[in-house]
Structure of M23 family metallopeptidase:
Amino acid sequence: MGLSTHRKAKGEKQVVAGLGGDAAIAEPARAASFSDMRDRVYSRIENLDIAPDLGADIGSKRWFRGLGTFVGLSVVALAFWPDFAPLEAASPLPDDAQVRSEYRSQMIMPLGLGADTGRRMGPTALVRPLAEAPERPQMQLLATLGRGDSLERTLMRAGLARGEADEVTKLIGSAVSLDDLEPGTQIDITLGRRPEAGAKRPLDKLNFRARFDLELKVDRQGDDGPLNLTRRIIRVDETPLRIRGQVGDSLYRSARAAGAPASAVQAYIKALGTQLDLQRDVRAGDTFDMIVSHRRAATGERQAGKLLFAGLERGSRGGVNLMRWGEEGDFYDADGTGEEKGGLVAPVPGRMTSRYGMRRHPVLGYRRMHSGVDFRARHGTPIVAVTDGRVTGAGRMGGCGNAVRIRHNNGIDTRYCHMSRIAVNRGASVRRGQVIGYVGSTGLSTGPHLHYEMYRGGKAVNPASVSFVTRKQLSGSELERFRSAMGTLRDVEEGAALADLAPTAEETAEEEPAREIDKLDKPKTIG
């Protein structure tokens, strides 16, 4: 046992000694090999050619290895490329008054203001409906007659039953023509108490301005009585409005600054333009004078109309005085000479496709004189007379097909060919711009167009080389009436039409004092 123990101890010592000896000897070796290994790795890394110059040694192994490295790094970079897709965000709040009001009704602030939005939150289980809710005894509405709408539909939208709306329409139609009611007319409607739940409210009264000088009222006689129509004639004064002033830097701006309506100023400038060169003949310091038709009602409303008189005082350079006269509303000067109308109107709105002169005929196939001009236009386009004249021929005219020939002043004739339909008869007088037929393709024609010819003394002339100037002249008794009317018009005082009409004794007696409570109770507007 002792020997065994001694051997074990000796063996342990040997093992321990061996281990110790090996460890003592191995540690420096391991340290040396790790250092060498590290140096070798560092050396290889330093000598490693990761990014060679691709601009040198093109086509060599080193160059292809560098290209592969570049492609690989590029693939890695693209794999980690960030996504630039748009981010989803909340949609913006629509900029609409109704939408804003809807959002506002859900806020807390309206609760503190007594729910001034007129909206309310949905009821909960704690809310119980009333067995019976009281209704307003009357309801006031303000309906507006729309363009293209009828009076009956307007009344039904306001709440009247169909039968009652039809009855009111017939009453009003007996006083005025329903077609004369202008769009935008406002109708003040008062509805009464419902006879039973779910029924339409009956009409108590209705009134509106049917014309500038007429007000109509429909009311009910008693609680269940019939409807009655009352007409109220409004006194209207038609003294024209005269506006005078000095021309400044701009005639238009000066007239507008003096209070003239824009439409009247435009008509004034157009009328003067027929007599003067506005850029050259009108100077600062000249005095413009215009008279406009004007109506003022006893109830205070005013209505300006069209221009009646256009005058311009230019001192020693002479003045211009023009007055509207006749059914056509043309302006004439003090001598009864009408406005000048220069040039020809185009017979059709199309462009010219073939001019006057020699050409190869599209149907006959040989060259011959084209004694007119062609205008491109669609089939059925209206053809108008280029100026005033008398029809000397209307019918079939050989290669011209359906045609119209017109004799004008100074020995001028015009002819309009290839019509699909003729709108005038031989011997009729036509005016400048009047429709005389419609574009077609009758006669020797390859398609719808207008062939237009002009003759002077029986010989064809180029239509593009002629322009007409026509002037009207009053004479005899008509000239006397014209001068008398101009004298009366020029006696109108400046600004006389701007004064309010003094009420008559009857109008004062009929006028009811306005109560303060009535001013607060405004009718509800219905479109």
About this structure: The mean pLDDT is 80. The first strand starts at residue 139 and ends at 144.
